[in-house]
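Supplementary Methods, section 5.1.

A reviewer requested that the exact input to the structure prediction be made available. We therefore reproduce it here, unchanged from the version used in the analyses.
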Amino acid sequence: MKAVLFDLDGTLIDTAADFIRIIQQMCRDAERPIVDADTIRQQVSEGARAMVKLVYPELDTSDPIFLAHRQRFLDIYASNICVDTQLFDGMPALLADLEQRDIPWGIVTNKPRDLSVSLLSALNLSQRCRVLVCPEDVSKTKPDPEPMLLAASLLGIHATDIIYVGDHPRDIDAGKAAGMPTVLAAYGYLPPDSREDLSAWGADVIVADVAELQHSLLNSTIL
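The structure derived from this sequence is encoded token-by-token as follows.
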């Protein structure tokens, strides 16, 4: 292992609390049924459209009214991007351990670059993150391997020497397609329809929490 790449939401950073707060407030503002926290958490990795669809399930995602609600959601999130968001428990120690061992770490995410940059800045991670690849940087996003291979190129490290950690099937698919060993972060925002058989995702390792992830990474049990 020469480097570690993380997915952002649900793997490196626990952003769910801010999404829950915003979506539930949008429900109150629209006088609609309050979406429960667990449902919101499970949809975080699916992006803004999925979030807003929880509030307005009857609207088509191409409807101008839906798009206006989506933009309102994004505007609220951008202006309150790190109210309750934090690194997952144990992640600060893991990142510090990687840095102490001179193992670079970075992020490959489907989150827009402006939001990703703002989030990393708010958590004082901007200077520590060695590479950040977002949708704007590639022609095809995960599950295509293009973002993974770009990150490897920017790091100057062969993809097979980089471990990718994610909490969504597309993360594992993208990592595998790029030739990277993969870790399924089962503590993250797993899609409801993919939870029954996590082994079916095809990840090299499944970890229940960050402590287990740290042990797997730093003891080279993956390779």
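The chain has nine helices and eight strands. These observations are discussed further in the main text.
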